[in-house]
Write a structure and sequence with these properties.
The protein has 202 residues and is α/β, with parallel strands linked by helices. It is 44% helix and 20% strand. The chain has eight helices and nine strands. Helix 1 packs across helix 7 and helix 5 runs antiparallel to helix 6. The longest helix is centred in the last third of the chain and has 16 residues. The radius of gyration is 18 Å and the shape is globular. 30% of the residues are buried.
Length: 202
């Protein structure tokens, strides 16, 4: 059994990452989301080990000391992190693991996992991105301008990624990501066991 892929998907707020990835998950049975560790309290309906792994601040800091995260960062007064052992266990079992994380987290993971696949999801232009954020109508004018500024700055990190996928339509964007995953699975370097059998190597 080949080891599963580690797929990192990043992109600015308003790029439609969650909607597109739902479409991708509906098409590929081997995909699994990584479950993050967090120090925040569980919300109604959230389940341990499914929504998050909930830890105290002391437990989280112990995990940092033991180098148990692929990446971690503070968000609004709480910590969130990607557990290394959990991701590795899924990949060893043959599952492809998706991390939907920001640029900083993506770069941290790439340093630790050399075969990670980095995909940047973006709208067609800065103008479309701005329009999508405005149309959500979930923030005040000041908050919106801050969000737009952050999202445009995130666009400028696209060159740090291996693949760029434009979300012009959900279906086409999902198809592009699926094509990337399928191509990565067929790379010679990921199929050493099969190649050794093909060439009758012992």
């Amino acid at each position: 059994m080949n080891k599963g892929l580690l797929i990192i998907v990043s992109g600015p707020s308003g790029a439609g990452k969650g909607t597109v990835l739902k479409e991708v998950f509906d098409e590929i049975e081997s995909l699994r989301y990584s479950v993050s560790v967090t120090t925040r309290k569980p919300r109604e309906g959230e389940k341990e080990g499914e929504s998050y792994f909930f830890k105290s601040l002391e437990e989280f800091e112990d995990m940092i000391e033991r180098d148990e995260f692929l990446e971690y960062q503070p968000v609004f007064g709480n910590y969130y992190g990607t557990p290394k052992e959990y991701v590795e266990r899924l990949r060893t079992a043959g599952y492809d693991v998706v991390l939907e994380i920001d640029v900083k987290g993506a770069m941290s993971v790439k340093e630790r996992v050399s075969d990670a696949v980095l995909i940047f999801l973006t709208p067609e232009s800065k103008e479309i991105l701005r329009s999508r954020l405005i149309n959500r109508k979930t923030e005040s004018a000041a908050e919106l301008e801050k969000r737009v500024g952050e999202s445009i700055r995130e666009l400028e990190t696209v060159e740090k990624y291996e693949y760029v996928v434009v979300n012009d339509t959900i279906e086409r964007c999902a198809d592009d990501i699926i094509a990337i995953i399928n191509a990565e699975k067929r790379k010679v370097g990921r199929n050493a066991e099969f190649i050794n059998r093909l060439l009758e190597r012992r």
